[in-house]
């Protein structure tokens, strides 16, 4: 009787252990949410900087003596050439004498206009007027600015020293004015400062960028967003970042093997290369004919993007 009970207990124990093993090791039905294979892509690692439209050479026109503005022959936006007369001005003495002659009679006024002519002020360089500060009839002193002119408008940006390795003379950049984000245009780096500055406890270098074709709305003082390509890779074998999971500084993917009816899923570590924030190059760990998947119960890990906005 005791032997029979022992046999029954042994059989029940074996059945229980078998059921437990089946439950633990039973393959779960895993639904595939998405899948794709390696594919060559053009990957560009980019970051953004903020720049400002400035005059390459900004020159404020001031009078050589105190007096009165008689005529200002140019206005904002006008192109001028070096040596061109841009202002007619009377000294304080001439202004007083002309006013006294006008008070006497019109004939006396005309006579003194011919005898004592106003002084011309000429443009010291070729360029265009970006600001007009005075109007005819106003009295000015030698410290007052009348006009502001520039030889050309460029974009300047302060680049963090850690990003300076991506900057070189002659490199082309894409930009847009923040006021007109839909109108992109190209520029070329023409100068990188040799001396740094500290802005908000960050070491930066001033970079000057010449627009290849200026937008018609280009104005001094405008803010521009500059896109700089840090790294570029042609025909990079890559997959979407959604398929890559990062944990403990290791990057893994789930690879589907076997048939479509009986798929086998394998978690595999991969080595990655360039990423543009959306796709990532796979250097090793995957073959061209292998498929990576996202499973229904898999939690998608956030991938790090190299796209930076500064």
What does this molecule look like?
The chain is α+β, with helices and mostly antiparallel strands and 310 residues long. The chain has 3 domains: 28-42 and 234-309, conserved putative lor/sdh protein from methanococcus maripaludis s2 fold, CATH 2.40.420.20; 46-55 and 152-232, Elongation Factor Tu (Ef-tu), domain 3, CATH 2.40.30; 59-150, RNA polymerase II/Efflux pump adaptor protein, barrel-sandwich hybrid domain (OB fold (Dihydrolipoamide Acetyltransferase, E2P)), CATH 2.40.50. 15% of the residues lie in helices and 50% in strands. The chain is built from 3 helices and 22 strands. The strands form 3 sheets. It has a 6-stranded antiparallel β-barrel with strand order 2-11-15-13-12-16. β19 and β20 (279-284) form a beta hairpin. α2 (92-104) runs antiparallel to α3 (106-115). It is rod-shaped and about 135 Å long. The termini are far apart. Mean pLDDT is 86; it is low at 22-28 and 298-310.
CATH topology of the largest domain: OB fold (Dihydrolipoamide Acetyltransferase, E2P)
Say what oligomer this is. Answer: single chain
Number of strands: 22
Q: Which CATH architecture of the largest domain?
A: Beta Barrel
Query: What is the mean predicted local confidence, pLDDT?
Result: 86
Number of helices: 3
Roughly how many Å is the radius of gyration?
Answer: 37 Å
State the CATH class of the largest domain: Mainly Beta
- Beta content: over 45%
Number of domain units: 3
User: Strand-and-helix sequence, N→C?
Assistant: HEEEEEEHHEEEEEEEEEEEEEEEE
Task: Please state the overall shape, judged from the principal axes of the Cα atoms.
Answer: rod-shaped
Looking at this structure, what is the CATH superfamily of the largest domain? RNA polymerase II/Efflux pump adaptor protein, barrel-sandwich hybrid domain
> Major sheet: order of its strands?
2-11-15-13-12-16
State the share of residues found in helices, binned by percent: 10-25%
User: Structural class, judged by helices and strands?
Assistant: alpha+beta
Distance between the termini: 84 Å
Low-pLDDT parts are 22-28, 298-310
Largest sheet geometry = 6 strands, antiparallel, barrel
